[in-house]
Amino acid sequence: MQQPGTAKNIWQVILASSAGTLIEWYDFYIFGSLSAIISEKFFPPSNPELAYIATLATFAVGFIVRPFGAIVFGRLGDLVGRKYTFLLTLLIMGGSTFAIGLIPSYHTIGVLAPMLVLILRLLQGLALGGEYGGAATYVAEHSPDHRRGYFTSFIQTTATLGLFVSLAVILITRSVMTPENFNSYGWRIPFLLSVVLVLMSYYIRIRLQESPLFIQMKQEGKTSANPIKESFGNRENLKLVLIALFGAAMGQGVVWYTGQFYALSFLQKTMNIEFVQSNIIIAVALLLGTPLFIYFGSLSDRIGRKKIMMAGMLIAALAYYPIYKTMDTIGDVKQKTEQTNLYRIESSQAKNESGQFVQHTTRIHSYTDGSILKESDTKKELTVDNTHMAILILLIFIQVVFVTMVYAPIAAFLVELFPTRIRYTSMSLPYHIGNGVFGGLLPTISTILVAKTGNHLAGLIYPIAVAVICFIIGMIAIREKSGKLSV
């Protein structure tokens, strides 16, 4: 058996794999981070609420097609190799993201704008469906058995760091220009910048060697002739795929997206927290929580993957309602005392999509707790005081802790579940159905539930139910592995 790489080599593998995966997540999440603005640019302006839901649905499409990308690129990875497959996915993702930054607005090209966005989101989803399985498998097959959870946890940080970097780039871009210019053209800059990051990552990855386990398997003539049939046509392996999906991946998916993307959507669309402040809240919470991926990944090497993942799902399901209830209360101006003597009205002019100057009237309400609400004809923006901002960061951070518990061990768990010859294909599909379908649809489903019921907390029904179901199945069906990779 060819041994995993040396200590120096494993860190080179982790750096190259993580850098590329981080950039792919950055590309993927720029769209979600800017969804409020994208809904205004690429969809009909007559119904803003419907446009936002349509934007979330377009965002979700990228998740829904991820399982198809997992099948296509997973098969390619098991036939050709891990390295070249995730080089290809990196280029597809980077090209699609760059192209979104070039699409003219709905005002300019009409219905063609959302159609082009949808096509590019499909390409992004397909690429990401092939990326994660390749990177996780590549790192895992270079890792020693007793530290696989630790080393693969660095790959697990990239999804959250990708979101963090996307928020940071957006905030920096917003800070160096006026709100009007950012809303007009500045929002395109984060999309266009991705091409530079992708080329840098491609240069790093192209210099890597293939996975040692895959090389050995290929030399011995043991590669699978039909990874898809062997993964899903074999009853025993299909059973493992279903356990991976319904006992781990679907619960992990909803916890991941609730703690990060739904949290951002809740801040911006339900609580109406001001754009910059809401992004800072999420970014700080992510920065504080990211080291816990490494901690829980390492801990899973010592006490097992199952205990940590199941605990994260259960605690999250129990904690979501009180957490979001507290958040909702902070954003409810009806429960605040207004300082009527500070009420004022401001008028300004700004260009619309036609280049015409439009008069805007903003009503500004100040409250005794330091919050300020700005109301215009089209939107509301609430800026909370520093104390409430700190509380919101803490509440999001707690959710990120749940994310790290369910997400840090899952790469090692999935890799150890399947044999090398069909590992890329077998692990990619349940992971991307769990994350792409169950997790990716969460913002859209939850937003629709809130819109239909008028209850700000109704959106939690979906993630809580999925997390509880997954916890029950996982506790019954999952058996801890020895930590060794099967060939």
From TrEMBL:
Descriptive protein name: MHS family MFS transporter
Compartments where found: Cell membrane
GO molecular function, one term: transmembrane transporter activity
CC terms in the record's Gene Ontology section: plasma membrane
A Pfam match: Sugar_tr
Keywords assigned by UniProt, alphabetized: Cell membrane, Membrane, Transmembrane, Transmembrane helix, Transport
Classification via SUPFAM superfamilies: MFS general substrate transporter
Residue spans crossing the bilayer: none
InterPro entries per the UniProt record, alphabetical: MFS_dom (IPR020846), MFS_sugar_transport-like (IPR005828), MFS_trans_sf (IPR036259), Sugar_transporter_CS (IPR005829)
Superkingdom: Bacteria
Keyword field contains Cell membrane: yes
Topology class, membrane: Multi-pass membrane protein
Stretches assigned to coiled coil: none
UniProt keyword Acetylation, yes or no: no
